[in-house]
Amino acid sequence: MKKNILVVDDSALIRRVICDIINSDSNFQAKDVCRDGLEAYEKLKTTTYDGVVLDVNMPNMDGLQLLERLQKENIKANVIMVSTLTTKDAEVTILALERGAIDFVTKPNNIAEAKGEDFKKRLLDVLTAVLNSRAYVKSAARPATTAATTVRPSKPANFTRLKASGKNKLVALACSTGGPKALQSVIPYLPKDLDAPMVLVQHMPAGFTKSMADRLNEVSAIAVKEAEDGDKLEKGHIYVAPGGRHMEVVKCPDGSHKIALNDMPAIGGLRPCANITYDSLSKSGFDEIVCVVLTGMGADGTNGILSLGHHKPIHVISQNAETCVVYGMPKAIEESGVVDEVVPLEKVAETITKNVGVK
């Protein structure tokens, strides 16, 4: 059965293009369209859709105002935002994810780009990943106990067994689809005196990572910033890989560590790529790396963590399937057999803190 999608945009041309893209996939159909958030609100009060593709800027009621109304009245909807690459829209999009949107895709700059294969692929990939994964989570029968932490104290026999030799630790976190929303349930719950720096790779376009880092910094006790080339890593600080650049951690002659950004080509369409960050940690001076993998499409991070584990003691924390928007990246690392703890999203911050301590 096809999944019904509601398309909300004030441009008739963009509505038509998005509907054509949705209808080109046999799994979806653009069931209804609305010109603004007010029309969409009236529809959503009486009609249930599998997904909603929602524009940010609209007259009468914009995307953010609609999400706030839905949240206030407890109207459930699987919303994917469509946002332009402006600083203002990036900031609004991050707020939209706090208000209940699941993820977003960037809006084309013109109609030619809107009709191009790149936008079509990005939109259908997000719809497929989010709606299929959420349907799977909702429909699969699982006992209530699956929300608890699962501890796996031993690595596979073919994995290098290394023990941490000191307390100089680093946290390296990777996430993708559903990540910006998931991070709102993790970063604000970390203590400001966390006894380790953290590097964070979230697959997002340039501009959005700064808005996300700034917003997380506003609502968190721990310091959060978009990483800049040459930043010295400090405990109690989180460094977010900037969209459009790979992030590595480099050991300095004095034993400290700094951020090194590079413009190497995208890997598997990803820049930043978590595997690049994890690979760079093999030559670091940290005694142990706490690797955290949250919701996301694909398997980015798995190969980097596997390689890192042959050079450094690692402790791997994975988000469980039940709380993932897309159970892709956590599934890949879990199936590799190197995960130490599988935890629900609401326990990720607690689990990180338990493993690295506070200053």
Molecular structure report:
The protein contains 12 helices and 15 strands. It is α/β, with parallel strands linked by helices and 359 residues long. The strands form 3 sheets. An 8-stranded mixed β-sheet has the order 6-15-14-13-7-8-10-9, sandwiched between helices. The chain has a 5-stranded parallel β-sheet with strand order 2-1-3-4-5, sandwiched between helices. The chain has a two-stranded antiparallel sheet with strand order 11-12. Strand 11 and strand 12 form a beta hairpin. It is elongated and about 60 Å long. The N and C termini lie far apart (54 Å).
Give a quick summary of the entry.
The chain has helices at residues 12-23, 37-46, 63-72, 87-98, 111-114, 117-139, 179-183, 208-219, 274-280, 302-308, 329-335, 348-356, and strands at 3-8, 28-34, 51-55, 79-83, 103-106, 150-151, 169-175, 198-202, 223-226, 237-240, 246-251, 257-262, 288-293, 314-319, 341-343. By secondary structure, the protein is of the alpha/beta class. Helix 10 (302-308) links the parallel strand 13 (288-293) and strand 14.
